[in-house]
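Incident log entry.

Two folding requests arrived from the same account within the same minute. Monitoring flagged them as a possible duplicate submission, but the sequences differ. Recording both here for audit purposes.

Request one:
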Amino acid sequence: MIIGRLRGEIAAIGADTVLIDVNGVGYVAVAGTRLVSRLTTGERAELHIETRVTENAITLYAFESDEARAWFNRLQDVPGVGGKAALAVMDALSPGELMDALALGDVAAITRAKGVGKKLAERIAGELAGKPPPMGRFGSLGVKPAAGSVSAADGTAGGGVRAEAVSALQNLGYGPSEAARAVAAAMKTGESDDTGAVIKAALKELTPS
């Protein structure tokens, strides 16, 4: 049985785990410290789950959004990146911040993840640079969070704007990597909520002064 999402009451919180009660059944999931810090015992929450099955255990990894869960999987496509390192990266960077770091080749940002050194960060940046972002479990990442979901405030609201801006630039003839770098640079200037403004700022990045 693959568990993809859990919605229920937070029964207990550990340093890197959370116990969520779903209709009387308690599920223990591994979570990053950023997500753990935003959960409150006794309150309801919705967690996106990645289920990993090995010979010795079944491990549930919890995330605030399906986008974060998808990036957790994408990171493990990189040689040498296991579940622990991938979770550390997603704990240090939101999906949007990770996309910006990859687009700009910002190795230093990736090394903010606990236990991820410069060499591994360089490998992550090199392997994933220029690749399209991962899709959600069912081919879409634009699902509106349910009421009470922690994903409603996960800091990834700019993801849709970013994707639309990159797509628009590609339609204008720019390559995927070039478009992603320009949009990442534009997002860092503070233009993150309005697609048109992001595209305009990105075009300035692409136009020689």
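Request two (distinct sequence, not a duplicate):
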Amino acid sequence: MGDRSATSLQASTNQLGKALAPYEAILLVSFGGPERPEEVMPFLENVTRGRGIPAERLAEVGRHYLLLGGKSPINDQCRRLLAALTTELRRRGLQPPLYWGNRNWTPYLDTELQAIERDGYRRVLAVVTSAYPSYSSCRQYRENLFDAARGTRAQIDRIRHYANHPGFVQASVDASLKALDTLGERADEARLVFVTHSIPTAMAETAGPAPRSSRGGYVDWHAAVAAEVAHRVARQRARSHDHDLVYCSRSGPPSQPWLEPDINDHLRQLAGRGVSAVVVVPIGFVSDHMEVIFDLDTEAAATAEESGMAFARAGTAGDHPAFVSGLVDLMVERAAAARGEEPARPVLGSAAVGWDECRADCCPNMREPGRPALCQIVG
């Protein structure tokens, strides 16, 4: 379909609502995952291309998917999130066209951006299903958006990093409280173990714009959000719980330092110190995809059982109403900024407000320095 007529454009603007102007379409940007066994290895090869991951490691991860029938849960979770976003937008009188594109599997970003152009839209707002700053959780998505947009006339902005937004935090608080309730009398003894994806320490140390702490923005943001969630859980229960930040899903060679401690090592250490119950909170993940279902629900749960600890796993933000409402708030906020206004930018905890655009020195690509990315400050 070619460019729409002026009458059609005006009708679309009226349907969209002034709150989201100048954006004409919303693009949900996610990681992607296989939906049948024969897609597993091609998908993993896509994800790890150029990273030198050993074939035996890919085969090991592939077995995780095959244990779930060869289907990643992430695509269905994106579909549920899209449905929830549509409902929340309509509740507010907003009806933007919503698209969904993945970095690593169908529907691919380039296919969706071509569809957006065929439908006549140019100003696009991206909502990335990754809440924190780092190369792998921010800049790599922006690089893929740059590549996918090449050859189209799409002008793409994105919402800011949102891990410390009230909607995301509230979803984590509610999930932690619900998990604690499942422990019954053991709840008061439980330690909160916040978990995120491990990344190379060199990547972590360069996450976020300079000046940055020696740990980098990735660790600092997670630590700040974990502390805020633990504080709010304590306030709700009128009882504090000790908490930790740990990591899962390391995939690099043994010679390369990655963020530690690993959750399984940490659970064993806690058991050795007499901790009798844990609530594992996957604060680094937006939905219950493979790292959550296998690394936490399978491996970490087994480690806790072997160590004699009561175990509960909190849910991810998923399509929690506070999270969904918060994403729409972030869309409206970004649109106001694009119009030259100065919207309120609420955050909870000690981490800074996330960035609409990133500086060139933020979360650098160490394998391909200077690779272009969208949503980046020029000059």
